[in-house]
Amino acid sequence: MNKRRILGLGLAAMMIFGTVGCSSSEGDDKSSDGGASGDLPKIGATVYKADDNFISSVRRELETNAKGVAELTVDDSQNDQAKQLDQIDTMIAKGAKVLAINLVDPKAATTVIEKAKSAELPVVFFNKEPDEAAMKSYDKAYYVGTISKESGVIQGEVITEQWNANKEKWDKNGDGKIQYVMIKGEPGHPDAEARTKYSIETINEAGIETEELAVDTGMWDAAKATEKMDAWLAKFGDKIEFVICNNDGMASGAIASLEKEGYFSGDKFMPVVGVDAIPEIITLIEKDKMAGTVLNDAVNQGKAVIDLSLNLANGKEPTEGTDWKLEGKAVRVPYVGITKSNLDQAK
Protein backbone atom coordinates (compact mmCIF):
# COMPACT_ATOMS: atom_id res chain seq x y z
CA MET A 1 0.00 0.00 0.00
CA ASN A 2 1.34 3.54 -0.84
CA LYS A 3 2.85 5.12 2.31
CA ARG A 4 1.39 8.52 1.48
CA ARG A 5 -2.08 6.99 1.71
CA ILE A 6 -1.26 5.40 5.07
CA LEU A 7 -0.33 8.71 6.67
CA GLY A 8 -3.10 10.17 8.75
CA LEU A 9 -5.09 6.92 8.92
CA GLY A 10 -5.78 5.05 12.12
CA LEU A 11 -5.12 1.32 12.38
CA ALA A 12 -8.82 0.46 12.05
CA ALA A 13 -9.17 2.64 8.98
CA MET A 14 -6.09 1.01 7.48
CA MET A 15 -7.53 -2.44 8.11
CA ILE A 16 -10.86 -1.52 6.54
CA PHE A 17 -9.12 0.03 3.54
CA GLY A 18 -6.93 -3.03 3.15
CA THR A 19 -9.94 -5.34 3.32
CA VAL A 20 -11.79 -3.37 0.68
CA GLY A 21 -8.71 -3.30 -1.53
CA CYS A 22 -8.25 -7.07 -1.29
CA SER A 23 -11.91 -7.69 -2.05
CA SER A 24 -11.70 -5.56 -5.18
CA SER A 25 -8.61 -7.40 -6.36
CA GLU A 26 -10.21 -10.77 -5.82
CA GLY A 27 -13.26 -9.69 -7.72
CA ASP A 28 -11.05 -8.65 -10.63
CA ASP A 29 -8.88 -11.78 -10.72
CA LYS A 30 -10.44 -12.95 -13.99
CA SER A 31 -9.83 -9.57 -15.60
CA SER A 32 -6.32 -8.87 -14.30
CA ASP A 33 -3.36 -9.06 -16.66
CA GLY A 34 -0.80 -7.51 -14.33
CA GLY A 35 -0.90 -4.24 -16.29
CA ALA A 36 -1.40 -0.77 -14.92
CA SER A 37 -5.16 -1.00 -15.18
CA GLY A 38 -5.38 -4.50 -13.73
CA ASP A 39 -8.06 -5.33 -16.30
CA LEU A 40 -8.09 -7.78 -19.17
CA PRO A 41 -10.03 -6.87 -22.31
CA LYS A 42 -13.60 -8.09 -22.31
CA ILE A 43 -14.61 -10.22 -25.28
CA GLY A 44 -18.32 -10.78 -25.73
CA ALA A 45 -19.02 -13.90 -27.78
CA THR A 46 -22.18 -15.68 -28.86
CA VAL A 47 -22.61 -19.02 -30.61
CA TYR A 48 -25.66 -19.87 -32.68
CA LYS A 49 -26.31 -23.17 -30.85
CA ALA A 50 -24.07 -24.53 -28.13
CA ASP A 51 -25.07 -28.17 -28.59
CA ASP A 52 -23.97 -28.22 -32.23
CA ASN A 53 -21.12 -30.75 -32.34
CA PHE A 54 -18.65 -28.55 -34.18
CA ILE A 55 -19.59 -25.29 -32.46
CA SER A 56 -19.15 -26.91 -29.04
CA SER A 57 -15.56 -27.71 -30.08
CA VAL A 58 -14.96 -24.14 -31.23
CA ARG A 59 -16.39 -22.83 -27.97
CA ARG A 60 -13.94 -24.95 -25.95
CA GLU A 61 -11.08 -23.53 -28.01
CA LEU A 62 -12.30 -19.98 -27.45
CA GLU A 63 -12.32 -20.57 -23.71
CA THR A 64 -8.92 -22.29 -23.74
CA ASN A 65 -7.23 -19.54 -25.74
CA ALA A 66 -8.83 -16.73 -23.73
CA LYS A 67 -7.73 -18.13 -20.37
CA GLY A 68 -5.47 -15.67 -18.58
CA VAL A 69 -5.47 -13.13 -21.41
CA ALA A 70 -9.08 -12.01 -21.76
CA GLU A 71 -12.33 -11.86 -19.85
CA LEU A 72 -14.49 -13.96 -22.16
CA THR A 73 -18.26 -14.34 -22.06
CA VAL A 74 -19.80 -16.94 -24.39
CA ASP A 75 -23.59 -16.95 -24.73
CA ASP A 76 -25.73 -19.65 -26.33
CA SER A 77 -28.24 -18.09 -28.73
CA GLN A 78 -30.18 -21.38 -28.97
CA ASN A 79 -30.70 -20.88 -32.71
CA ASP A 80 -32.74 -17.74 -32.06
CA GLN A 81 -31.55 -14.62 -33.89
CA ALA A 82 -33.64 -12.24 -31.78
CA LYS A 83 -32.14 -13.75 -28.64
CA GLN A 84 -28.64 -13.30 -30.05
CA LEU A 85 -29.25 -9.63 -30.78
CA ASP A 86 -30.42 -9.13 -27.19
CA GLN A 87 -27.27 -10.87 -25.95
CA ILE A 88 -25.14 -8.53 -28.04
CA ASP A 89 -26.91 -5.50 -26.54
CA THR A 90 -26.16 -6.84 -23.06
CA MET A 91 -22.49 -7.46 -23.88
CA ILE A 92 -22.12 -3.91 -25.17
CA ALA A 93 -23.81 -2.53 -22.05
CA LYS A 94 -21.44 -4.54 -19.83
CA GLY A 95 -18.36 -3.05 -21.45
CA ALA A 96 -17.22 -5.55 -24.06
CA LYS A 97 -14.24 -4.24 -26.01
CA VAL A 98 -14.82 -6.53 -28.99
CA LEU A 99 -17.64 -8.81 -30.18
CA ALA A 100 -17.03 -12.35 -31.48
CA ILE A 101 -20.17 -13.53 -33.23
CA ASN A 102 -21.24 -16.90 -34.63
CA LEU A 103 -24.41 -15.69 -36.34
CA VAL A 104 -27.68 -17.58 -36.11
CA ASP A 105 -28.68 -16.13 -39.49
CA PRO A 106 -25.93 -14.73 -41.75
CA LYS A 107 -28.47 -12.20 -43.05
CA ALA A 108 -28.48 -10.58 -39.59
CA ALA A 109 -24.87 -9.45 -40.03
CA THR A 110 -25.96 -5.95 -41.06
CA THR A 111 -27.91 -5.50 -37.82
CA VAL A 112 -25.00 -6.78 -35.74
CA ILE A 113 -22.62 -4.44 -37.55
CA GLU A 114 -24.93 -1.49 -36.91
CA LYS A 115 -24.85 -2.28 -33.18
CA ALA A 116 -21.06 -2.66 -33.19
CA LYS A 117 -20.58 0.52 -35.20
CA SER A 118 -22.82 2.54 -32.86
CA ALA A 119 -20.72 1.37 -29.92
CA GLU A 120 -17.47 1.83 -31.90
CA LEU A 121 -16.55 -1.80 -31.26
CA PRO A 122 -14.69 -4.20 -33.53
CA VAL A 123 -16.58 -7.37 -34.43
CA VAL A 124 -15.10 -10.74 -35.41
CA PHE A 125 -17.61 -13.05 -37.08
CA PHE A 126 -16.82 -16.75 -37.18
CA ASN A 127 -18.15 -19.99 -38.74
CA LYS A 128 -21.04 -18.29 -40.59
CA GLU A 129 -19.74 -15.71 -43.01
CA PRO A 130 -21.63 -12.47 -43.67
CA ASP A 131 -22.00 -11.39 -47.26
CA GLU A 132 -19.38 -9.15 -48.82
CA ALA A 133 -21.52 -6.01 -48.74
CA ALA A 134 -22.07 -6.31 -44.98
CA MET A 135 -18.36 -6.82 -44.32
CA LYS A 136 -17.40 -3.83 -46.46
CA SER A 137 -19.85 -1.60 -44.59
CA TYR A 138 -17.64 -1.45 -41.47
CA ASP A 139 -13.88 -1.10 -41.32
CA LYS A 140 -13.74 -2.92 -37.97
CA ALA A 141 -15.56 -6.08 -39.11
CA TYR A 142 -13.58 -9.28 -39.72
CA TYR A 143 -14.26 -12.95 -40.30
CA VAL A 144 -12.57 -16.18 -39.18
CA GLY A 145 -13.55 -19.39 -40.91
CA THR A 146 -13.24 -21.40 -44.04
CA ILE A 147 -14.02 -21.11 -47.71
CA SER A 148 -17.40 -22.80 -48.02
CA LYS A 149 -16.70 -24.16 -51.49
CA GLU A 150 -13.50 -25.86 -50.32
CA SER A 151 -15.31 -28.19 -47.93
CA GLY A 152 -17.56 -29.45 -50.72
CA VAL A 153 -14.66 -29.91 -53.11
CA ILE A 154 -12.60 -31.85 -50.57
CA GLN A 155 -15.57 -33.97 -49.55
CA GLY A 156 -16.05 -34.79 -53.23
CA GLU A 157 -12.39 -35.76 -53.45
CA VAL A 158 -12.74 -38.07 -50.43
CA ILE A 159 -15.80 -39.73 -52.00
CA THR A 160 -14.01 -40.11 -55.34
CA GLU A 161 -10.96 -41.69 -53.73
CA GLN A 162 -12.99 -44.08 -51.62
CA TRP A 163 -15.36 -45.04 -54.46
CA ASN A 164 -12.52 -45.79 -56.85
CA ALA A 165 -10.80 -47.94 -54.23
CA ASN A 166 -13.95 -49.91 -53.36
CA LYS A 167 -16.06 -49.74 -56.50
CA GLU A 168 -16.41 -53.50 -56.94
CA LYS A 169 -17.98 -53.84 -53.48
CA TRP A 170 -19.93 -50.58 -53.31
CA ASP A 171 -21.45 -50.44 -56.83
CA LYS A 172 -24.35 -52.70 -55.93
CA ASN A 173 -26.13 -52.62 -59.30
CA GLY A 174 -22.94 -52.54 -61.36
CA ASP A 175 -23.98 -49.50 -63.41
CA GLY A 176 -20.83 -47.50 -62.60
CA LYS A 177 -22.87 -44.67 -61.05
CA ILE A 178 -23.08 -43.62 -57.42
CA GLN A 179 -26.72 -43.74 -56.29
CA TYR A 180 -26.69 -41.42 -53.26
CA VAL A 181 -28.81 -39.70 -50.66
CA MET A 182 -27.78 -36.30 -49.31
CA ILE A 183 -28.53 -34.93 -45.84
CA LYS A 184 -28.16 -31.16 -45.98
CA GLY A 185 -27.59 -28.64 -43.25
CA GLU A 186 -29.67 -25.53 -42.72
CA PRO A 187 -31.26 -24.30 -45.98
CA GLY A 188 -29.57 -21.13 -47.19
CA HIS A 189 -26.53 -21.60 -44.95
CA PRO A 190 -23.45 -20.88 -47.11
CA ASP A 191 -21.68 -24.06 -45.97
CA ALA A 192 -24.73 -26.25 -46.55
CA GLU A 193 -25.32 -24.94 -50.04
CA ALA A 194 -21.65 -25.10 -51.02
CA ARG A 195 -21.09 -28.61 -49.65
CA THR A 196 -24.20 -29.89 -51.41
CA LYS A 197 -23.25 -28.38 -54.76
CA TYR A 198 -19.50 -28.83 -54.92
CA SER A 199 -19.25 -32.34 -53.49
CA ILE A 200 -21.28 -33.69 -56.40
CA GLU A 201 -19.64 -31.43 -58.99
CA THR A 202 -16.20 -32.64 -57.88
CA ILE A 203 -17.23 -36.30 -58.18
CA ASN A 204 -18.64 -35.71 -61.66
CA GLU A 205 -15.55 -33.79 -62.76
CA ALA A 206 -13.49 -36.83 -61.75
CA GLY A 207 -15.44 -38.85 -64.33
CA ILE A 208 -17.86 -40.60 -61.96
CA GLU A 209 -21.57 -40.38 -62.75
CA THR A 210 -24.01 -39.83 -59.90
CA GLU A 211 -27.73 -40.30 -59.39
CA GLU A 212 -29.53 -38.43 -56.63
CA LEU A 213 -32.13 -40.65 -54.96
CA ALA A 214 -33.09 -38.10 -52.30
CA VAL A 215 -31.90 -34.88 -50.69
CA ASP A 216 -33.38 -33.14 -47.65
CA THR A 217 -32.33 -31.01 -44.71
CA GLY A 218 -31.33 -32.47 -41.37
CA MET A 219 -30.70 -28.97 -39.95
CA TRP A 220 -27.22 -30.06 -38.74
CA ASP A 221 -28.98 -32.32 -36.21
CA ALA A 222 -28.20 -36.01 -35.59
CA ALA A 223 -31.73 -36.97 -34.52
CA LYS A 224 -33.28 -35.37 -37.61
CA ALA A 225 -30.71 -37.15 -39.78
CA THR A 226 -31.68 -40.48 -38.23
CA GLU A 227 -35.33 -39.81 -39.10
CA LYS A 228 -34.43 -38.97 -42.71
CA MET A 229 -32.26 -42.05 -43.06
CA ASP A 230 -34.95 -44.29 -41.56
CA ALA A 231 -37.42 -43.06 -44.19
CA TRP A 232 -34.98 -43.42 -47.06
CA LEU A 233 -33.97 -46.94 -46.09
CA ALA A 234 -37.64 -47.91 -46.00
CA LYS A 235 -38.18 -46.36 -49.44
CA PHE A 236 -34.96 -47.18 -51.31
CA GLY A 237 -33.32 -50.01 -49.35
CA ASP A 238 -30.26 -51.43 -51.15
CA LYS A 239 -30.61 -48.95 -54.00
CA ILE A 240 -28.66 -46.50 -51.82
CA GLU A 241 -24.93 -46.77 -52.48
CA PHE A 242 -23.61 -43.70 -50.65
CA VAL A 243 -24.77 -41.38 -47.86
CA ILE A 244 -23.39 -37.84 -48.11
CA CYS A 245 -23.88 -35.53 -45.14
CA ASN A 246 -23.10 -31.82 -44.81
CA ASN A 247 -21.68 -32.36 -41.33
CA ASP A 248 -20.54 -35.12 -38.99
CA GLY A 249 -23.39 -34.71 -36.54
CA MET A 250 -25.86 -35.72 -39.23
CA ALA A 251 -23.49 -38.45 -40.42
CA SER A 252 -23.57 -39.98 -36.94
CA GLY A 253 -27.37 -39.83 -37.06
CA ALA A 254 -27.39 -41.61 -40.42
CA ILE A 255 -25.08 -44.30 -39.08
CA ALA A 256 -27.38 -44.84 -36.08
CA SER A 257 -30.21 -45.52 -38.55
CA LEU A 258 -28.07 -47.85 -40.66
CA GLU A 259 -26.97 -49.81 -37.60
CA LYS A 260 -30.63 -50.52 -36.76
CA GLU A 261 -30.92 -52.14 -40.19
CA GLY A 262 -27.92 -54.38 -39.63
CA TYR A 263 -25.28 -52.37 -41.46
CA PHE A 264 -21.64 -52.50 -40.30
CA SER A 265 -22.16 -56.08 -39.17
CA GLY A 266 -20.56 -58.85 -41.22
CA ASP A 267 -20.35 -57.85 -44.88
CA LYS A 268 -23.23 -55.37 -44.81
CA PHE A 269 -21.70 -51.93 -45.29
CA MET A 270 -22.80 -48.47 -46.38
CA PRO A 271 -20.26 -45.71 -47.10
CA VAL A 272 -21.03 -42.49 -45.23
CA VAL A 273 -19.11 -39.21 -45.38
CA GLY A 274 -19.46 -36.00 -43.38
CA VAL A 275 -17.61 -32.78 -42.57
CA ASP A 276 -15.94 -31.59 -39.34
CA ALA A 277 -13.80 -34.54 -38.11
CA ILE A 278 -15.33 -34.44 -34.63
CA PRO A 279 -13.94 -37.03 -32.16
CA GLU A 280 -16.98 -39.32 -32.41
CA ILE A 281 -16.52 -39.59 -36.16
CA ILE A 282 -12.81 -40.29 -35.90
CA THR A 283 -13.72 -43.27 -33.72
CA LEU A 284 -16.29 -44.45 -36.29
CA ILE A 285 -13.70 -44.23 -39.07
CA GLU A 286 -11.31 -46.28 -36.96
CA LYS A 287 -14.04 -48.91 -36.53
CA ASP A 288 -14.78 -48.97 -40.30
CA LYS A 289 -18.25 -47.51 -39.79
CA MET A 290 -17.49 -44.32 -41.71
CA ALA A 291 -15.78 -43.86 -45.07
CA GLY A 292 -14.34 -40.43 -44.39
CA THR A 293 -14.86 -36.82 -43.39
CA VAL A 294 -13.35 -33.37 -43.87
CA LEU A 295 -11.42 -31.74 -41.06
CA ASN A 296 -13.03 -28.45 -40.11
CA ASP A 297 -10.29 -27.14 -37.84
CA ALA A 298 -12.01 -26.05 -34.62
CA VAL A 299 -8.68 -25.71 -32.80
CA ASN A 300 -7.23 -23.11 -35.14
CA GLN A 301 -10.53 -21.35 -35.74
CA GLY A 302 -10.96 -20.83 -32.00
CA LYS A 303 -7.38 -19.63 -31.65
CA ALA A 304 -7.68 -17.22 -34.57
CA VAL A 305 -10.88 -15.68 -33.18
CA ILE A 306 -9.22 -14.96 -29.84
CA ASP A 307 -5.97 -13.74 -31.41
CA LEU A 308 -7.81 -11.25 -33.63
CA SER A 309 -10.16 -10.20 -30.84
CA LEU A 310 -7.30 -9.49 -28.44
CA ASN A 311 -5.44 -7.38 -30.98
CA LEU A 312 -8.54 -5.41 -31.91
CA ALA A 313 -9.50 -4.88 -28.26
CA ASN A 314 -6.03 -3.50 -27.63
CA GLY A 315 -6.09 -1.16 -30.61
CA LYS A 316 -3.69 -3.19 -32.72
CA GLU A 317 -3.88 -4.47 -36.25
CA PRO A 318 -5.98 -7.67 -36.27
CA THR A 319 -3.18 -10.12 -37.13
CA GLU A 320 -0.28 -8.28 -35.49
CA GLY A 321 2.15 -10.65 -33.80
CA THR A 322 0.33 -13.77 -35.06
CA ASP A 323 0.83 -16.28 -37.87
CA TRP A 324 -2.57 -15.50 -39.37
CA LYS A 325 -2.88 -13.81 -42.75
CA LEU A 326 -5.82 -11.68 -43.83
CA GLU A 327 -7.39 -12.38 -47.21
CA GLY A 328 -9.33 -9.20 -47.60
CA LYS A 329 -11.08 -9.05 -44.24
CA ALA A 330 -10.99 -12.76 -43.49
CA VAL A 331 -8.65 -15.29 -41.90
CA ARG A 332 -9.14 -18.59 -43.71
CA VAL A 333 -8.45 -21.87 -41.91
CA PRO A 334 -8.07 -24.66 -44.50
CA TYR A 335 -9.99 -27.91 -44.63
CA VAL A 336 -8.31 -31.33 -44.88
CA GLY A 337 -9.80 -34.56 -46.24
CA ILE A 338 -9.72 -37.37 -43.66
CA THR A 339 -9.91 -41.13 -44.20
CA LYS A 340 -8.53 -44.06 -42.24
CA SER A 341 -5.15 -43.50 -43.91
CA ASN A 342 -4.53 -40.11 -42.22
CA LEU A 343 -6.49 -40.23 -38.98
CA ASP A 344 -3.48 -39.04 -37.01
CA GLN A 345 -3.75 -35.69 -38.74
CA ALA A 346 -7.33 -35.28 -37.54
CA LYS A 347 -6.41 -36.37 -34.03
Report on this model:
The structure is a single chain. With 347 residues, this protein is α/β, with parallel strands linked by helices. The protein is built from 13 helices and 13 strands. The protein has 2 domains: 37-146 and 298-334, Response regulator (Rossmann fold, 3-Layer(aba) Sandwich), CATH 3.40.50.2300; 149-295, Rossmann fold, CATH 3.40.50.2300. It has helices spanning 3-6, 11-27, 53-66, 81-93, 109-118, 132-136, 148-170, 190-205, 222-236, 248-260, 279-286, 298-313, 343-346, and strands at residues 42-47, 71-76, 98-101, 123-126, 141-145, 178-184, 210-217, 242-245, 272-273, 293-295, 326-327, 330-332, 336-338. Mean pLDDT is 90; it is low at 1-38.
Offer a few descriptive terms.
347 residues, alpha/beta, Rossmann fold, 2 domains, seven-stranded mixed β-sheet, four-stranded parallel β-sheet, elongated, disordered N terminus
CATH C-level of the largest domain: Alpha Beta
With strands numbered from the N-terminus, the spatial order across the biggest sheet is 2-1-3-4-5-12-11
Question: Which whole number gives the mean pLDDT?
Answer: 90
Percent of residues in helical segments? 40-55%
Q: Identify the CATH homologous superfamily of the largest domain.
A: Response regulator
End-to-end distance: 50 Å
Report the β-strand fraction as a percent range.
15-25%
Main β-sheet description: 7 strands, mixed
By DSSP (H or I, 4+ residues per run), the number of helices equals 13
CATH topology of the largest domain: Rossmann fold
CATH architecture name of the largest domain? 3-Layer(aba) Sandwich
Shape descriptor reads elongated
Tally of strands: 13
Oligomer state of the chains in this structure: single chain
Written as H for each helix and E for each strand, in order along the chain, the element string is HHEHEHEHEHEHEHEHEHEHEHEEEH
Can you tell me the residue ranges where pLDDT is under 50 for at least 5 consecutive residues?
1-38
Number of domain units: 2
Q: Using only CA atoms, what is the Rg?
A: 25 Å
